[in-house]
Structures are given as structure tokens and as C-alpha cells.
Amino acid sequence: MRIGATKLYAATAALGLLSGAPLDAQGGKNWASYHANPGGDHFSPLGQITPANVAALQPAWRIDTGAGGLQTTPLVIDGILYAMTPDQQVMALDGATGRKLWQRKLPDSNLQPVRGLSCWSSGKERRLLVGAGSYLHALNMKTGASIATFGAHGRIDLRAGLDRPLASVALALTSPPAIWGDLAIVGFRTAESTPAAPGAIRAYDVRTGRLRWTFHAIPRTGQPGAETWPADAWKTAGGANNWAGMVVDAARGIVFAPMGSAVSDFYGADRKGNNLYANSLVAIDARSGRLLWHYQLVHHDLLDRDPPSPPVLLTVDHDGRKVDAVAQATKHGVLFLFDRVTGKPLFPIQETPVPQSNVPGEASSPTQPMPTLPAPYARQRLTADMLTQRTPQAHDEAAKAFADYTSNGPFAPMQVGKPTVVFPGFDGGAEWGGQAIGRGRGILYINANDIAWTGSLAQASGAQGEATYQQNCAACHGMDRKGSPGAFPSLEGVMTRRLEGEVATTILQGKGRMPAFGHLAPQMTALMDYLRHGDAPKSDRAEMAGKTPSTQRFIFTGYRKFLDSEGYPAVAPPWGTLSAIDMNSGRYLWRVPLGEYPELTKSGMEPTGSENYGGPIVTASGLLFIGATVYDRQLRAFDAATGKVLWQTTLPQAGVATPITYMAGGRQFVVIATSNARDAKAQAGSGYSAFALPRR
Fold first, then answer.
1. How large is the average pLDDT for residues 342-350?
2. So where are the chain's domains?
3. CB 3.0-4.6 Å disulfide test: which of 85, 274, 279, 485 passes with 299?
4. Residue 353: which H helix or E strand, with range?
5. Cα angle 175, 180, 185; round to 5
6. d(C-alpha 266, C-alpha 166), whole Å
7. pLDDT tens figures, 377-392
8. Whose CA is closest to 200, among 213, 212, 215, 185?
């Protein structure tokens, strides 16, 4: 960890330069930031809906947005709700009725997820900042029209300025900008295999679109952290990008950004060292982009263990004093807590010995940092006695498969030719929805996945088309192109089911969970040939696809959930949880299963919990609202003090997004985005559902 001196920036707040404060400081009337406020605590001071009356909550309005995935947490400013559709159209709705006020399809829109929007204001001047593909747009909030004086005709191309040829950079802005003063501060999503864009946090002038500063997450030669990479790695290395979003200590002018994994995710022979600032929480001076402090959460990541959600700001009682802190959740199920000014851990962190890789060329880290408190919020090591008991057949299937796996804790590295258990799985632990804070009490609420996945490595192919597929596609769709049920579709026979142009567009622009692979344009002919003839004998495929050596020696064979033959997790429940943690002491207050499979509950099983995506929100009246669960399509209200469900309703689709709450027309509303994109068996659809108490 490197700690730099940090100033208190109260003078900035006193001068009234912190944009967003007037919008956020309206008694909870607005939901003016992606995670409620710049600090990202998912907290609302509203109290019209209470534990005593929440059972009367009923549907208020609904708007459908068509097929596709929808993960957007909307904004509400002065009664107007701003949201996205699955194909990245922006719309404004009357927050009290759902009536559409305007809708705008951006010229750069595609099918990448957009999880939120940002609003900037200064006096009476306001603008909406929205990501579409690789562009950041500034829109007039009254009409949706582009603001021509921002960037080039209302947009900024985020591919520019990354020390790579523009055509070779593939990125998307899936999480919205953090706003501080007159700056829009952004990261981006990029590929998880080479080549990938090099991670950077950049601040743009909200009025003009001019670049004001850049923090390079892969240090330049001679900069602190460069010694944790091979020489001149910044010229070719990629990843270490902020895709999950950021939060801001507005009064101090500190940006907190969790940084993603370096590529390639699962084989790091070409990036020996700890790879700062990948897999780190970094604190950056919002004025200049200067690094203030950092803490690396995973050294030399080999398991895609990058932080999955923005951190959250809170105040805790620690050693007899109030401490302004920042908490960062992880995919591997542990929670880090730091003094947000100094970066000092508030609970001890131990460098713990971990299993070492035996893959040729690899040099894994001998230790990984593990906090002593709080205890992990997801199970850490799968053993034979933790396998499913759902039925005797399911248990026997799981035991037979498990006997052929390596299961050795959350940092057991991949092997060549033998599956390794990844537990918690690749989707967490925590996921991108973020956490909520019981403000003033230091209580953190977190939902988590608790199922196992598996993965392995294989020797890379030498044929160009097959090598391109292995390096860029196999991680999700598998070396055998069969995909993974419910998560990644099969590509077997895809060229007979889809037009070639449709397949090529999806590859180049991305769709849903799949990032864009624009850099593959020169290899598209060979890749298409491989997809078309992938079932041919390997010797014939090599002739069809040409012979160009792969750039990687070993390839990840694909994400695989550890499931039984009926598609249920092969580990014992709970498969998803919701927890309340007292961050003053690190002690758990309660933990409950989150989600269920309705058919299992109907058969007599206790609720098992399920996969969940999207986070919770908490209100001053003591309610916690969360959707998130994939298979039961429920929106639930919990008693934040006890974890008891006080109200729930079935949504048209799964609420795999973080909800919001706001006031409009004198009523408190709860709104959540819904879609069935994560449930392959469910009918396609998406939209926004609003709930409120009956009119008096």
C-alpha cells in the first residue's frame, strides 16, 4: 500500500462548488446520483413508506421497454425520471404517472448494458451525461437533444487518448460518470483478453468536454508501481480498468475507484509481478488526478477476482472516535474497510499464503490479503460435505464430478486439463449492484451469490481462426462452443441460425454481458470460418482457417457453473444471501437467504437463496428494498433491523438492478428495472415497475 498526504477540502464545500449537492439535498425528494448520492450509500431519508404500512404498497405504474437485458438504476430530478432502454435509448418519464415525456436514440447506441446515468447542475444549468457504446454524451434534460458545445457535436469518443490506435481499442461506458465540481470522471469496460485498452480514470470538463486529467492505472516507466510490471508494460498491457463505477467524497474532493483485473484474466506469464494498480482500490485527488493512496486487494490476479462494485462511504465508531471510512466488497466474499483519508485499514489485514500455480511460465503471488474482520460473507472453500443434498441422485452426480476437481480455497489457481473449483464463483460473492448503508449507524447491507463455478486452462491452438476464438471467445462460450447454461449461449451451429452480418455485428459491437471486440475486424474472416466449420476435424479446420500462431500459450477453457443435471447449484444452500454487518465492530447482525426457486419451494424445500444481481437500498424509516433475484422475480421489503420480510411482490421480469425511491406528487415511489435476460427459460422482456401506497 502506498499512502500519500491528503488535505481536507472543506473550503471547496464552503464555496458551494460541489455540483450535485443542491439536487441531493432535498430531503430525499430526488434520486440524483447513480447510487443515491456521490458517496454511493444507497440511503434515502424518506419515511412515508414505513415498516407499519409497507404491506399496503401496490403497483403505481409500469412501462415496458422491449426484449433485452436491463440493469439501469434511473435518476429522478424534480419529479422527472430519466432511464435507459435495453438498446441504449434515453427517456424521460413523469415520475408520478410513468407518462413518457421524451425518448432519444443516440447515434452510437448498441446492446451493451448501461447501469446508470449522471446529472450535473450549476445554478439553473443542468445536463444529463449518458454512455452509449464508447461515447459519453451530454444531453439537454428537457428535450433529450445533444448539447453541441460538449466535445464533438455533443459527445466524446472515450477511445481517444489511450496510447493505442483508435481502431484497436474496444471499450464501453457501462457505469455512469462520477460528478465533482465541473468534472465528469469516467472509467470504462474493455475486453478481458489481449489486446485490451489500458485502464485509465479520466476527468472531462462537463461544459466543454475537454480532458482535464488522466490517472494511468498501468504506470508509465519510472512512475510508482511500474516496478510491479515487466519493463515498459504500459505500452502493450491492458485491463486494470474501472468498469464498476466510482464514488466521491464531495467535501474532500477524493475519488474512490476500484480497478479491474489486468489481462489476460487467467494466465499472466506476460505480466509477472503484482500488477499495480489492477485489482486495487485507489483514492485520487479529484482536482488533479494525483494518486493519494491505494490498496491492492488481489495480487497478480489469475481468477478474475477484480472488485465488482463501487465502494461505499460511511462513518464508523473506531477506537473511541468517529472515522470517515470507505468499504470495498469483493467477488471472493470479503469486505475491506479503510480510513478514507489515509488509506489505513480499520481492521487488520493478513497476507495469507495461497496455493501456487504449476502452469508453465506462470508466477503466482505467494500470498493474498485477507481481512480479519468482518468474517467472509460467502463461503470460502468447497468440501465434499458441502455438496447438494437436494436429491440422492443430485448428490451422487455432484460427488462424482467433485472427485475430479481441485478445490483448495478462493485463490486456488487454474490448472491445465483439470478443472479447479472457484468458490465463491466468478460472479461473486458481491456483484455490481453495490451495498447500502444505514446512515448514522455504520450498518452495511450486502447481498451475495454463494455458488461454485469451475475453470481450467488448455494449450492454445496455432490456427488463426481457432486461436482468435480461443483467445477472445472461449472464456464465455467454452473451448467446445457449448457455452454455459443460463449465462453464456452456445455457439454450436450459430452460423446456420444467424445471418453472418448479425454475428459479425454482435462480435464487433457487443451485446448485453458480451463486451465489444472491435479490434477483431481484421481477423473476422478467419473467425467466421472457424465458427462455420468448428465441427470439422482439427486438421481440416487448420487448413480452412490458416495458420497464425496464438499470442497466448495457455487459454482459459470457459466459465462453468457447478450445477446438477437439472440445472440447480451442485452445492448445498444457501445459494444467495442478504446480510447486515455492523462495521463499527465487524460483527454480523443478521443474515438470511435471498431468493428462491419457486418450484423447489412448492415441493417443500425451505427457500434456498438464488443468484442475485443488483443491490439494496435503505430508507430512514427502517426499510430495505431489494429485487436482484433471478428466478423468483420478487421485489422485497425487509425490516432493516431484523432481516424479516415485510412485503414482497412478483415482478413482470426479474428485478436485476438496484431500485430507487423518490417523491413525486406528494407520494413516495419505489421503482426498479426488470428483465429476464439472465433466465434462459423465461419469456424475454424488460421495463420499469413503480410502487406506492394507495392514494388517501
1. 98
2. 2-380+423-451+573-692, 461-551
3. 274
4. strand 349-353
5. 40
6. 26
7. 999 999 999 999 999 9
8. 215
Write out the DSSP string of 47-112: -SS-TTTGGG-EEEEEEE--SS----B-EEETTEEEEE-TT-EEEEEETTT--EEEEEE-TT--BS
Radius of gyration of the chain (CA): 24
Sort strands 135-139 and 155-157 into parallel, antiparallel or unpaired: antiparallel
Q: Do domains 2-380+423-451+573-692 and 461-551 have the same CATH topology?
A: no
Report pLDDT for 413: 97
pLDDT digits (tens, 9 = 90+) for 240-273: 999 999 999 999 999 999 999 999 999 999 999 9
The grid coordinates listed for 167 are: 481502431
Distance CA 95, CA 78 (A): 9
Name the architecture of domain 461-551.
Answer: Orthogonal Bundle (1.10)
Task: Show Cβ contacts of residue 538 under 8 Å, excluding neighbours closer than 6 positions.
Answer: none
pTM of the predicted model as reported, rounded to 2 decimal places? 0.90
Which pLDDT tens digit goes with each residue over 59-88?
999 999 999 999 999 999 999 999 999 999
Cβ(64)–Cβ(57) under 8 Å? Answer: no
* CB neighbour burial string for 660-677, b if at least 16 within 10 angstroms, e if fewer: bbbbbeebbbbbbbbbbb
441 Cβ contact list (under 8 Å, min separation 6): none
Helix (H, G, I), strand (E, B) or coil at 485: coil
Collect all residues with Cβ–Cβ distance below 8 Å to 493 and sequence separation of at least 6.
none
CATH number for the region 2-380+423-451+573-692 comes to 2.140.10.10
User: b/e per residue, 51-71, with b = 16+ CB within 10 A?
Assistant: beebeebeebbebebeebbbb
Q: In the predicted model, is pLDDT for residue 19 greater than 90?
A: no
279 contacts 297 by C-beta, under 8 angstroms: yes
For CA atoms 390, 612, 471, 534, give the dihedral sign. positive
pLDDT of residue 549: 44
Contact between 485 and 525 (Cβ < 8 Å): no
pLDDT in tens, 638-665: 999 999 999 999 999 999 999 999 999 9
Q: What is the pLDDT of residues 446-458, one digit of tens each?
A: 999 999 999 999 9
| DSSP 8-state secondary structure symbol assigned to residue 425 | B
| pLDDT of 16 over the 60 cut | no
As a whole number of angstroms, the distance between CA 624 and CA 605 comes to: 25
Is residue 690 within 8 A of residue 116, CB to CB? The reply is no
